[in-house]
Sequence to fold (317 residues):
Amino acid sequence: MDWIKVTVHTTTAGAEIVSEKLIAAGAEGTMVEDRADIPDPAKPHGYWELIDPALLDSMPEDVLVHAWFQPDDGFAERMNSLRASLERVRAVFPPMAAGSLAMESEDVHDEQWNEVWKRFYKPFRAGKTLVVKPTWEPYEAQPGDRVIEIDPGMAFGSGMHETTAMCLGLLEETVRGGQRVIDVGTGSGILAIGAALLGAGSVLAIDIDRDAVKVARENIAHNHLEALITAEEGNLLEASGSVTCDICVANIIADVICMFAAPLRQHIAPSGLFICSGIIKEREQQVLDALQAANYTVLKVCRQGEWVAMLSRAPED
Fold:
C-alpha cells in the first residue's frame, strides 16, 4: 500500500498534542523522533547501556512527529483542518514552546515505514532484567534476562519512549507472580508481554484500535505467550465489572487517565495496583488530583525527561 507521510516539527513538550491532532485528522499511525528519548552515551543512564552511541548523532535537532495517511479524495481537506488545529495549538502554548509546527509531506511505501523503525530501534534494557529487542536485531541474552521481542508495526509502543520504559520498570517492581494484569491501550502489546515474562498469572491486553490488537497478537505469538495473554479489541469501561485484575497498567495520555481513574476501579481488585503513564510533566498535578479524588493512594511517582509515571493503590473496598 502507498501512504502519504506527514511530518510536523515540534518540541518534546508539544509532541503529545501534535500526535493527538494527527490521529484526529485520520492518521493510521504516528511516530515521534526525539533526541530526548535517546540517552547520551557520554553520561551514565543506568540500564540504557545497549543503545548505539552513533544513534544520538543521527537524530534531528527538532522533535519530529511522523504520521501516515491513506491517500484519498478527502486528504487535502483533512490537511487544511490539521493546519487549523495546529494553529490552535500554537495559540495555547507559550511562544516557541511547541516549536515551529512546520508541516512536510511525502509519498512512501510500506517498506519505507519498516525501514524507519529498523534505523532507530535497537536492543536496550528497560529495567534490571527486562530487555526489549526488535525481532530483526540479534541479541545474546545474559543470565537472568527476560527478553521482549517486539515489532511495533503501525502500533504505538516500541519501548524506547520514557513512558513505556517507566511502566516496564514499575511492572518489574510489582509483579511478584500469579497476579492478574490488564494492559489498557496495549498498542504493540509490549507491557502485556513484559508482565507475562515477569510472572503474571494472566494478562488481558485491550485496545480500541483494531490494527493495534492485530500487532499485539502477532507480538504475543512471537514471544510464545498466547497461553498467558489474551488480546482483545474494545473499551474496558464497557466490559462487565467481573473483568478484574490485581494490577492495571495504562500508558495513554493525561486526559484519558483523569477520565478513567474512577470508573477503572470496578476492574481493579480491592487494594490492587494502578500503573499509569503517558503524562507530560505539566499535567502531573492534574493526574495526582484525579487519582486522589478517586480514592487511590499514590505510592510512587517516577520522572524521566518530560514524562511522568505513577504507581497507586486502589482502596480496600
Summary: The longest strand covers residues 268-280. Residues 277 and 309 are 4 Å apart (CA to CA).
